[in-house]
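User: Structure with zinc ion, tokens only please.
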Amino acid sequence: MKPLHLLPVGPVDERLLRHLKSAIPQCLRAPCAVLPAVLDPAPTFHGERQQYHSSEILHLMQGFVAADCGRLLGVTTIDLYIPILTFVFGEAQMGGPCAIVSAHRLRQEFYGLPADSELLSQRLLKEAIHELGHTLALTHCDDYRCVMAPSHAVEWIDLKESTLCPACQKRVANCFGS
Ligand SMILES: [Zn+2]
Ligand SMILES: [Zn+2]
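Assistant:
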């Protein structure tokens, strides 16, 4: 099976990347490696919004998809948006190969609360699995505990597990040929 690659988009805390690298293979049955390269998101910055256009980042990421790469997940700490929404936690190309997740609005500090690195790692993992699920052609799930449940606020992310429900698991098994 082809490995999942993690691509830092701008500077990203080493600890967050390490956690994703070890935890993602436990949720999706695929090996995971962090790419040595870093993608500069500067060209996708929107001055008025003070945010970065996630769809444009996904476009730039195409150049980092290696021949042996199953899926490419961008990991960032910048604030992402798409034009019709105030912000996004992440975005994915349905059916692959690229997706991106941002830790920016997953931090307790963003909501005026004390930092919680454990909670941040958990939230980022859930959003990473969620967006990777979309690259595996999974749509949103009605089971609020399933990682494929939609989340428009961190409270919703905290309600769900980092794993796929049995129904989503079955759908993705076909994709990985297992
Ligand atoms: Zn989604
Ligand atoms: Zn599900």
